[in-house]
Amino acid sequence: MGTEKHVIRGACVSDARDMHELHARAVDAFCRGHYNDDQMKALLIGRTPEGYLPVIERDEMFVMESDGRMVGFGHATVGEVQALFVDPDQTGRGVGGALLRHAIELAARGHEGPIQLTSTLNAVGFYRAHGFVELEPTELNKHGVALPFVLMEQTRPVALDAYDSMAEAYAAEIEKNPRSIYYERPALLGLLPDVSGRRVLDAGCGPGVMVEWFLTQGADVVGVDGSANMLKLAEQRVGEAPALHVADLEQPMPFLADSSFDVILSSGTLGYIRDWLALFREFSRVLRPGGCVVFSVGHPCSEYTLNETDDYFSTELREYTWRGLGAPIVVPCYRRPFSHMIDAIVRAGFSVERMVEPVPTKEFAEVKPEEYAELMRRPRVLCARVRKPANGA
Ligand SMILES: C[S@@+](CC[C@H](N)C(=O)[O-])C[C@H]1O[C@@H](n2cnc3c(N)ncnc32)[C@H](O)[C@@H]1O
Fold this sequence. Notes:
By secondary structure, the chain is α/β, with parallel strands linked by helices. It has helices at 16-31, 37-44, 53-57, 95-108, 124-128, 160-174, 178-191, 209-216, 228-238, 276-286, 300-306, 338-347, 362-367, 369-377, and strands at 6-10, 61-66, 69-77, 80-86, 115-120, 132-142, 145-154, 199-203, 220-225, 243-246, 261-267, 287-298, 316-322, 329-335, 351-356, 381-387. It has two domains: 6-154, Gcn5-related N-acetyltransferase (GNAT) (Aminopeptidase, 3-Layer(aba) Sandwich); 160-387, 3-Layer(aba) Sandwich (Rossmann fold). The longest helix has 16 residues, at 16-31. The two termini are 38 Å apart. It binds S-adenosylmethionine (SAM).
């Protein structure tokens, strides 16, 4: 979604007429086939442009424009995405995803706990693709007609609040932080195969630095991240081309087809995932036979010694306080023993092809000599390439 062309702004009173018209066209285009004729009428009956005004005045609605023309709008309140409407002529252009990310960001302000929404039957797959799960079917009665909907909820990654709130600062820092550019990234690049013409999933893509790199390499890349704010920044960086999904990696990703990727990268994200076995099984499902996962994670030795823990052998949720990205921020993260990592990977059917305990490059020494010396003696990151068998077992 290019920022020059697409803009999301708060709705104003003068938008009401266009919203009314777009709403009717969207319902007609997307809901037909899922609701009968009586239900279709009930979905729209009694609506007027004036009906939007109280909600606009409460600052709960927002509009997306492309070259000055309204292409969609949405409505969010605390904890809830109330509605999204996309111009039917704009489908497949990332408008719905961008509106949803904005709606989630608004709904999450001042709210703890999952974000909920009530989906029309046609939109359930779209919301699934953005990390929502079905809670239960529900029914609304409008003008005497029973309308079926589905109550859905977005699951919450443990570190979501932290990453949502520091997204911009993180994105700026990652460009220049020596630990990223002279330490972790060179190790990951050394493990990645040639991705030109390959389909790549960046699992926990954050602000999209590697999504951008994959595009420059000629890969067809899909990004997934739990933080809508991070994905907004990724979108600003890479534009419309790659599909970006807000989704919790603790959950299945039904929006990704079986055997559809050659390579998965997960850089700095697996520490936030409790259930590695479920995730690596999901990675295996979406990878083609012979495909690989390349990842980096906090080194189990340093994670153990940094934490005051009595029990190396358990997987435990710890809290780290990050400084240097504005106000100190508490980031929850799982610490786990090395054997738990390997067990999950092997039980999910992967074989470990390379395992690297990287050391910094020489450039690191020029900018931060003391930290360089420290990293030459103490590991902080573990990187690996693991492969799904070519026979698909
Ligand atoms: C350290 S950042 C790494 C971002 C990016 N891979 C990079 O190297 O710059 C970790 C990322 O994982 C995402 N994340 C954490 N837990 C997640 C989860 N359960 N599901 C999806 N994304 C998650 C965060 O939102 C954040 O963008």
